[in-house]
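User: Please run a holo structure prediction.
Assistant: Happy to. Please share the sequence and the ligand.
User: Here you go; the ligand is alpha-D-ribofuranose.
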Amino acid sequence: MVAGKKSEPSVRYALIDCDPGVDDALALAMGFASPFFRYAAVTTVHGNVSARLAYRNARRVVSFLRGHLESSIPDVPVYPGASLALDGSRLNRSESRMIHGPEGMGAMFDKKRRLPRLGRGSSKPAWEVLVGHALKRGSQLTIITLGPLTNLALALRHAPEVFSRVKRIVVMGGAARMPGNVTPAAEFNIYCDPLAAKEVFSSGLPITMVGLDVTRRALLSVDEFKGGGSFRAALRDLIRVYARFAKKRRRAENITLHDPLALAVAMKPDLVETASCRVDVDASQGIARGMTVVDLRENKESRVKNPVDVALDLDVKGFLAFFISHLREYRGWDVDEE
Ligand code: RIB
Ligand code: CA
């Protein structure tokens, strides 16, 4: 049971589960700048970096963001999560280090920059926090997952009945009609823990899958981070490695906002068009490990059992404007006042 105030009926609560990670940090920056959600917790998970680093990075990012917001948000508690996939498999993180930097935060927290103090931490495991908030906040709670689904799958294994009242679960992950990004078949978050994804997508809960079909179109020019004040300079440091990898891999001067889009969809669902489909996951050790098999067939023999709302189209301009409008809320996005 999560201690704390009784839920106020009009409040929308959110819990973000993430593996920061550059785009995870950008998602937190966008979300915290808006009063749309009251953030009950941030839970962390293995993925882009180790579980230990994800936990430390999230605490630093929360602390850093709070220090640059006029309307200061409460000190959102951060909780440590799973360090291994459900099947015990370990991921080779060499490519993740090239994308997110050796410690997962690009150059944002490098030595020359004053490190923000670590934000509020706790030893309570992430799956327990997910269960506690689902129990306490119920239909007022939206869960947004930005990394592998290990924590959520563990929470469902411990208390499946508790999640039936949760308002929405928005998952950044998977791909319906396009190749993966970590193998030809698999998107990274699903690849890291396919068994967890299989259990989550077949749970029958109200899930929106925000996969590569839409996130690959959520491309923001690196020019948006030029100039401005100290906050924008810090984000420039954050994306430096991420942008360099994009330039090398895609020959592009833009960055892919996978995680910010998932959180934006939780706040503004009309940014995407979805189809209600069954989503299965290959949890084998074979060549298609981590593939999300999305049943887009028109002539489905029977009403799909446990469908997922799969995002297939995106209002690109609308999302990018939404994202930038939130960053403008930070002190130091524009030139620092004297
Ligand atoms: O495939 C993109 C996803 O993998 C994002 O969540 C990114 O942070 C990485 O975790
Ligand atoms: Ca992520």
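The pocket of alpha-D-ribofuranose (ligand 1) is lined by residues 19, 21, 23-24, 47-48, 146-147, 172, 181, 187-189, 258-259 (CB under 6 Å).
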